[in-house]
């Protein structure tokens, strides 16, 4: 599959603070790609880099099959729509008037204004002044502005920020249908995987400026193991083994099983060997599945030294 966004070793430092380091981003054409990470992970910085709003400290960016350079930037941006932070608009003008202004700048037609209003479900409010709009309506107007000119790539930085649950639901539905309705690939950021997991097909998990996982959403589940449950004939004999493996405080008992946090495979194999040697009688080892949000949280939490994943 070809990529609409590709970065190679992308780094951005603000003085001595590194915001993004060694990022190799691959966003496939036609995907809805969720760029997920906790506050301060570097999502906005990356999106600003992709739009040429700030310059990388090192590394390169390819967008829409072209290297992003000062010469190619305008051409690339004419095929890109974006919403970074909150949208800009004239509060004393109506939604339709704001869109007509942007359409003029982008060389879009009057009928496109009608169509984007319909896509973001603002047609009934088209003649209202934007100053009277709710936050969710303003976000939808921002997306309508980004859609003018029918971009190949839409870059949206936390468009669900500040929305109520109904607004989030509506925004999700809107974004999920973008590739089909408008032919646009969507790169969207959020600090919550749960907010996007129903609509994205690819994810990049970012933490402290680095990608921890990138690929199909389905692969994330396989990428990370869940808690380990051990069925033992003599659980009392397990305690010293767990203690010497550094797991004493991490083990819990559930329905007759000893449950441990996710463990690296080689570590688990050694542990089972030690438990067997100590006479604990290992009769069952199973790995539980975890929700995507749990996987995300464990990925973004620092690795321990105990073999815990
Ligand atoms: P959030 O979810 O809170 O919006 P984010 O993932 O978008 O976070 P960024 O805004 O990209 O994160 O910030 C990444 C890091 O870069 C943070 O440590 C932030 O303080 C720093 N940073 C961002 N912009 C600047 C700037 N203009 N000058 C100095 N440091 C900055």
Describe the model.
- The chain is an alpha/beta fold.
- The chain folds into two domains: about 5-220, Rossmann fold (3-Layer(aba) Sandwich), CATH 3.40.50; about 225-290, Alpha-Beta Plaits, CATH 3.30.70.
- It has helices at about 45-50, 75, 95-105, 110-120, 135-145, 165-175, 180, 195, 215-225, 240-245, 265-275, 290-300; strands at about 5-15, 15-25, 25-30, 30-35, 60-65, 65, 80-85, 155, 185-190, 200-205, 210-215, 230, 250-255, 255-260, 280-285.
- A hairpin with a 2-residue loop joins strand 5 and strand 6 (about 65).
- Helix 3 packs across helix 4 and helix 4 (about 110-120) packs across helix 5.
- The structure holds adenosine-5'-triphosphate.
- The site of adenosine-5'-triphosphate (ATP) has 12 residues, from strand 2 and helix 1.
Offer a few descriptive terms.
309 residues, alpha/beta, Rossmann fold, Alpha-Beta Plaits, six-stranded mixed sheet, five-stranded antiparallel sheet, 12 helices, 15 strands, elongated, disordered C terminus, binds adenosine-5'-triphosphate
Indicate the topology.
Elements: E1 3-14, E2 17-23, E3 26-28, E4 32-36, H1 43-50, E5 58-63, E6 66-67, H2 73-77, E7 80-83, H3 95-106, H4 110-119, H5 135-147, E8 153-156, H6 165-176, H7 178-182, E9 185-190, H8 193-196, E10 202-207, E11 210-216, H9 217-223, E12 228-232, H10 239-244, E13 252-254, E14 257-260, H11 265-277, E15 282-287, H12 292-300
Parallel strand pairs: 4-9, 4-10, 7-8, 8-9
Antiparallel strand pairs: 1-2, 1-3, 1-5, 5-6, 10-11, 12-14, 12-15, 13-14
The structure holds adenosine-5'-triphosphate (ATP).
């Amino acid at each position: 599959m070809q990529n609409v966004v590709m970065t190679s070793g992308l780094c951005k430092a603000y003085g001595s603070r590194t915001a993004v380091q060694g990022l190799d981003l691959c966003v496939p054409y036609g995907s809805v790609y969720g760029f997920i990470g906790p506050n301060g992970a570097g999502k906005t910085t990356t999106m600003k880099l992709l739009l040429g709003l700030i310059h990388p400290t090192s590394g390169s960016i390819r967008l829409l099959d072209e290297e992003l350079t000062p010469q190619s930037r305008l051409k690339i941006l004419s095929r890109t729509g974006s919403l970074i932070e909150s949208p800009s608009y004239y509060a004393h003008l109506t939604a339709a008037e704001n869109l007509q202004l942007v359409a003029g700048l982008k060389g879009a037609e009057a009928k496109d204004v009608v169509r984007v209003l319909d896509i973001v479900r603002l047609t009934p409010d088209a003649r209202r002044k934007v100053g009277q709009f709710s936050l969710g309506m303003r976000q939808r107007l921002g997306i309508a502005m980004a859609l003018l000119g029918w971009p190949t790539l839409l870059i949206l930085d936390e468009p669900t920020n500040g929305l109520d649950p109904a607004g989030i639901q509506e925004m999700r539905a809107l974004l999920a249908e973008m590739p089909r309705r408008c032919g646009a690939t969507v790169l969207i950021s959020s600090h919550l995987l749960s907010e996007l997991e129903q609509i994205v097909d690819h994810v990049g998990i970012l933490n402290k400026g680095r990608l921890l996982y990138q690929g199909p959403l389905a692969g994330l589940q396989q990428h990370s193991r869940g808690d380990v449950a051990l069925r033992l004939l003599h659980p009392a004999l397990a305690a010293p083994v767990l203690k010497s493996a550094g797991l004493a405080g991490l083990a819990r008992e559930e329905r007759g099983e000893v449950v441990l946090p996710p463990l690296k495979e080689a570590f688990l194999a050694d542990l089972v060997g030690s438990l067997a040697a100590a006479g604990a009688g290992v009769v069952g080892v199973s790995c539980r599945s975890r929700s995507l949000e749990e996987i995300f949280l464990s990925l973004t939490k620092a690795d321990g030294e105990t073999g815990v994943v």
